[in-house]
Amino acid sequence: MDKPLAGVRVLDLSRILAGPWCSQHLADLGAEVIKVEHPKRGDDTRSWGPPYLKNTREAAYFLSANRGKESVAIDIAHPEGQQLIRELASQVDVVLENFKVGGLARYGLDYESLKAVKPDLIYCSITGFGQDGPYAERAGYDFLLQGMGGLMSLTGQPESVPGSEPVKVGVAITDLFTGMYAATAILSALLQRDRTGDGVWIDLSLLDVQVGVLANQAMNYLTTGNSPERMGNAHPNIVPYQVFPSADGHIILAVGNDTQFQRFCEVAGIPELAGDSDYATNNSRVENREQLIPQLSACIAKHPSAFWLDELEKVGVPCGPINNLAQVFADPQICHRGMRIERQHPEAGSVPLVSNPIRFNGHALNAETAPPALGEHTLEVLQRLLPNQNSRLDQLKIEGVIR
Fold first, then answer.
1. pLDDT tens digits along 40-55
2. Cβ 204 vs Cβ 126: under 8 Å
3. CA–CA separation, 158 vs 377, rounded Å?
4. Are 322 and 376 in a shared domain?
């Protein structure tokens, strides 16, 4: 199948997660992604282990965000390396970078400099706080942004629970969302360029993204003036919608409307609760959650998780388990959908990866190659895009400008 971004070329100067997550997504969609790395250390996440892929020193972290790319090792601190980047930029559609504000300007690799060699260039900058404002010069890290952007004020057990504290999400969710916003912005810019012929400078801030995805909780604040507080696994606007202990573990009960609550009460043997004016509507359940939740907890604790999962599924009440990752990747639905994939790796033989969830006409969109070794494609890419310069490239390799 011809992939939707076939023919699009991306020069990826980013590292860690937000930028690489974006460029991996573009690679899955068919773009040619040239990942520029430092000749000696490469992307920082190559060494963010253990764990490492078997028989290698490639960290699992790096493998999570870099499939389908060509690794080109160039020292951009060297004038010759900077010149190589400018020459490559003249032949790509997109440049993606996540240096600090002004970090690439000193190398002559900022938007204005590269626009001079490629007037219709799409240039995407990802920073912690954006290109302007009082925090623009600061470095930004996902953990910090989850705190500064309000997410950690919403995540964790309530303040009243002994020992409770704000908690970050278990993956770098701000980075991941920023990567996806970057991909969306780049795709939109490509469409715009097709109409107008103009390139664009995309400015993405991790802090902006984190605030942007506060969703209903942001609106809960903006419409009331009251800051939502940590509620553990409870939902601020829906009841019952949280984790409950069963006789042998825990389940998630996610009642989304009044009819589902009635069905739950019938299965649970407490139909009178559904008819009680204090609990009959979601509005009343939210107002009276302090009285309702202990009653539901006592009822659910009488039966094992399997009972609730089976019986509630029969009547269409959303209910689910809390799986660890071994259970996730053994789940029959995950297996059927092919969410674990394998790609050939020159050192390990193969590498397990997580599939891109997008499907076109029943086909998952995944890049065909594993995450690259450091500098694996340096000469191949440079010889292809900068032909008839073998002697120059040989000299740059001797000097350590490229690997």
1. 999 999 999 999 999 8
2. yes
3. 51
4. no
Which residues have a catalytic role annotated? 175
Helical spans, DSSP H, in 149-214: 173-196, 206-212
Looking at the DSSP bridge assignments, the partners of residue 34 are 11, 70
Strand (E) or helix (H) holding 56: none
Domain co-membership, 102 together with 196? yes
233 neighbors 243 (Cβ within 8 angstroms) = yes
Q: For residue 314, what are the domain limits?
A: 241-326
Q: What is the pLDDT of residues 1-26, one digit of tens each?
A: 789 999 999 999 999 999 999 999 99
Q: The sheet that has 9-12: what strands, in order across it?
A: 69-73, 32-37, 9-12, 94-97, 122-127, 200-205
Q: DSSP letter at 352?
A: E
**CA–CA gap between residue 373 and residue 216 (Å, rounded):** 42
Q: What is the pTM of this model?
A: 0.95
CATH code where residue 262 lies? 3.30.1540.10
For residue range 290-348, list pLDDT tens digits in order.
999 999 999 999 999 999 999 999 999 999 999 999 999 999 999 999 999 999 998 89
90: its two tokens: 């003249």
Q: Are 378 and 74 in contact (CB under 8 A)?
A: yes
